[in-house]
Design a protein that fits this description.
41% of the residues lie in helices and 11% in strands. The mean pLDDT is 96. The protein has 18 helices and ten strands. The protein has a four-stranded antiparallel β-sheet with strand order 1-2-7-4, sandwiched between helices. A two-stranded parallel ribbon has the order 3-10. Strands 5-6 form a two-stranded antiparallel sheet. Helix 1 packs antiparallel against helix 5, helix 14 runs parallel beside helix 16 and helix 15 packs antiparallel against helix 16. The protein folds into two domains: 257 residues, no CATH class; 104 residues, Leucine-rich Repeat Variant. The termini are far apart. It has 369 residues and is α+β, with helices and mostly antiparallel strands. Strand 8 and strand 9 form a beta hairpin. The structure holds cobalamin and iron/sulfur cluster (2 copies). The site of one iron/sulfur cluster has 12 residues, from helix 8 and helix 10.
């Protein structure tokens, strides 16, 4: 059995905030995942149905795996609401964590090869591997899964990314499981605006603002749009209200710090980004996951929810000029939601010109036809 002490120390040197090693075995909450799928709680995330056997056992994901080195990376930023009014989930304030942390995990894997002296196979992964990462981190003793389904570290809180290196060597692993410290608290469940935490530990993605603003490709269901509030990308509400985050340390990693160019942006500004400006603003950012059409769709919903009559003129201009039907449809909703004579005239003018059946439906709905 090889000592994991040096490996864990190297992980800290590479900028990870917590690290633990666990013997590879079947994950304890595999059944909860299968039940989640059966209930259809993954919505349109078809990829969550793939590789079911691999997701619940690291040994199936990478044959030969005997140990897993699991890391946490703190991304806690100050506020999620920026000076210009955009509310962006904290994890996406800086550079794309997939790229930033994968590079460091690759270094950690290389160190494991060098340290053990053996030709061990290692597989570094963060977020993209089909593996229940929260379950894995809990089994490694890095925290407990809270009622908001987040892995909560007793000192660092829940604003963390989880990553891992799968190793085909027996490493020393003595995890102490952290017992559930939620107790009678239910703040996250009470605060979720869409009721997405359907029972403790279970998120119905179809109602979750994070899913609706990042993963969903088509129109946001009309009945949920007003509940999205000012969330233009992702949602941190069930973490912001969690007492375990109130004293959590801020991340000092410059790669994850808020990009200054986002600070002054408003949702209306986003609606005016063309393809080139969008690509430039969000290069190497996790926000690109939503694609331009998804982000502008969200921005339209946020502007609608502001109920600001002074936004109507700019919205009306975008309704005439925007090439993407998904975005035009949500601008139509925003105009209808703000209401008033000027908005009605803009909608009536648009209905005369519109050819796209989906946008026509949104326009009719907004005009109450
Ligand atoms: C799909 C996905 C989503 C979906 C679905 C979320 C979900 N809850 O499943 C959506 C798009 C909604 C989403 C949102 C977010 N996500 Co996400 N997501 C994933 C992904 C790719 C898979 C998650 C998964 O397998 N879901 C299936 C369900 C069944 O699993 P689960 O929710 O993790 O549930 C576990 C626990 O609830 C527990 N459990 C279930 N029942 C019970 C019962 C009891 C008694 C107990 C104790 C436990 C328990 O067991 C389950 C299985 O392990 C993971 C990466 C990965 N490979 O794991 C990231 C991941 C979970 N996401 C992450 C993040 C940061 C987020 C957001 C905070 C982003 C944001 N700010 O908008 C939100 C948080 C929303 C929330 N409260 O969950 C991090 C979480 C880190 C952490 N500290 O927990 C991960 C691990 C990515 C990473 N590598 O860092 N996400
Ligand atoms: S991320 Fe937001 S919408 Fe999703 S469960 Fe948490 S509070 Fe609810
Ligand atoms: S808000 Fe309360 S119930 Fe929810 S995860 Fe935090 S401690 Fe647990």
């Amino acid at each position: 059995m090889v000592s994991s002490e040096h490996i864990e120390r190297r992980a800290v040197e590479l900028g990870f905030d917590a690290v633990a090693t666990v013997a590879a075995r079947r994950l304890v909450r595999g059944e909860a995942y299968l039940e989640w799928l059966r209930e259809g709680r993954h919505g349109e995330m078809g990829y969550m149905e793939n590789y079911q056997d691999l997701r619940v056992d690291p040994r199936a994901l990478e044959p030969g795996t005997k140990s897993v080195v699991v890391v946490l990376k703190n991304y806690h930023q100050g506020e999620d609401k920026l000076a210009g009014g955009l509310r962006i989930a904290r994890y996406a304030h800086g550079n794309d964590y997939h790229e930033v942390l994968r590079a460091r995990l690759v270094e950690l894997a290389a160190f494991i090869h060098a340290e053990t002296g053996a030709d061990v196979a290692t597989r570094p992964a963060i977020d993209t591997a089909p593996l229940l990462e929260r379950d894995l981190a809990a089994m490694a003793g890095l925290g407990w899964v809270g009622k908001n389904a987040m892995l909560i570290h007793p000192q660092i809180g829940s604003y963390t990314f989880i990553g891992e290196v799968l190793v085909d060597l027996e490493l020393e692993a003595e995890p102490t499981v952290v017992l559930d410290r939620c107790g009678t608290c239910s703040r996250c469940m009470d605060a979720c605006p869409t009721g997405a935490i359907v029972s403790p530990y279970v998120i119905d993605a179809r109602r979750c603002i994070s899913y609706l603003t990042i993963e969903l490709r088509g129109p946001i269901p009309r009945e949920l749009r007003a509940l999205i509030g000012d969330h233009v990308f992702g949602c941190d509400i069930c973490q912001s209200v969690c007492p375990w985050n109130s004293k959590a340390p801020r991340s000092e990693d410059p790669a994850l710090a808020l990009r200054s160019e986002y600070e002054a942006l408003s949702a209306l500004d986003l609606l005016e980004l063309d393809d080139a400006a969008y690509a430039k603003t969000f290069q190497k950012s996790a926000i690109k996951r939503a694609k331009r059409r998804g982000l502008l769709r969200n921005a339209a919903v946020v502007v609608g929810n502001s109920r600001a009559p002074e936004a109507v003129a700019r919205l009306a201009l975008r309704l005439g000029a925007e090439a993407e039907p998904l975005v035009r449809g949500h601008i139509a909703w925003a105009l209808g939601h703000i209401g008033g004579e000027e908005a009605r005239l803009a909608l009536e003018a648009a209905i005369e010109q519109e050819q796209d059946p989906y946008v026509l439906e949104e326009l009719r709905c907004s005009l109450g036809l």
